[in-house]
Amino acid sequence: MSIRVVRVAVERTLALRQAVLRPLLRPENLLHPWDSLPTTAHFGAFVENELVGVATFVESSRTGSVREWRLRGMAAAPEFRGRGIGRALIDAGRAFVAGSGGSAIWCHGRESARQFYEKLGFVVCSDRFEDPVSGLHFVMESTLF
Ligand SMILES: CC(C)(COP(=O)(O)OP(=O)(O)OC[C@H]1O[C@@H](n2cnc3c(N)ncnc32)[C@H](O)[C@@H]1OP(=O)(O)O)[C@@H](O)C(=O)NCCC(=O)NCCS
To answer: What are the chain's domains?
Structure first.
């Protein structure tokens, strides 16, 4: 299966964000102020011409001392999971963040996705915490250098 990852407009990410991550919200309610910042990048993963995964990288320094990007809205279509979509999106984000002068990517990783992130080199760097909307999470981070 050939996966193509390219930058997309935020509007392209909304349907998958909604279906996978926020099924109780409407897609138009999943646009956030950080989505349109000039340092934000949205990526879409395509199989043939079908959009099957999305991820957004938002500049946000967790430590306050270096430039870092936060991964948000990471979602793969259920029928395409386990076939490298998530990995391809993270690889694209790493290249983008490194090229933008960032030294790390971090996220609030759902407990259910912890092993996915660990396989891609992220480490847990917080206690487990509960988001009232989306459940149990860890802060997870991957340094680039
Ligand atoms: C998490 C998610 C994005 C992973 O996408 P994916 O396309 O299935 O991931 P990949 O196929 O690239 O997986 C990369 C590796 O992680 C593993 N993996 C993927 N999801 C996993 C999970 N939930 N638990 C354990 N391992 C997982 C894969 O088996 C693969 O391992 P391998 O390299 O040994 O073959 C996808 O499952 C998803 O959209 N989940 C629902 C939304 C979600 O939880 N998003 C993250 C919110 S923080």
So the answer is: 3-143 (3.40.630.30)
